[in-house]
Write a structure and sequence with these properties.
single chain, two-stranded antiparallel ribbon, mainly alpha
């Protein structure tokens, strides 16, 4: 991630503002998932799905093309952030404090 951000520094422009603008949608999605027992909290403030990989795949396949693309991109970003290491490290790459 650090190398990519060095090569694509324009991605950091207004990153915090874009991040904050997604907060209400993210909060609503998490609440929706938790109400249906699809998402559960883990230690350290992490979240985990209760759905099997097969259930997630089946759900994604049933989505419209646009929605499926959004989910696939979100999964990519989630995996990318996970591989970056600790939360504070990944956020520091983006110039944001957790």
């Amino acid at each position: 991630m650090a190398a990519w951000l060095q090569e694509n520094s324009e991605a950091r422009v207004l990153f915090y503002e874009r991040l904050v603008s997604l907060k209400p949608h993210t909060r609503e999605a998490i609440q929706f998932g938790m109400l249906r027992d699809w998402i559960v909290p883990r230690s350290g403030g992490l979240l985990e799905t209760t759905l099997s990989n097969a259930e997630v795949t089946r759900t994604i396949r049933a989505l419209s093309d646009e929605a499926r693309e959004c989910v696939m991109r979100a999964r990519f970003v989630g995996k990318w952030l996970e591989e970056a290491g600790e939360t504070h490290t990944a956020m520091a790459f983006w110039g944001v404090r957790p």
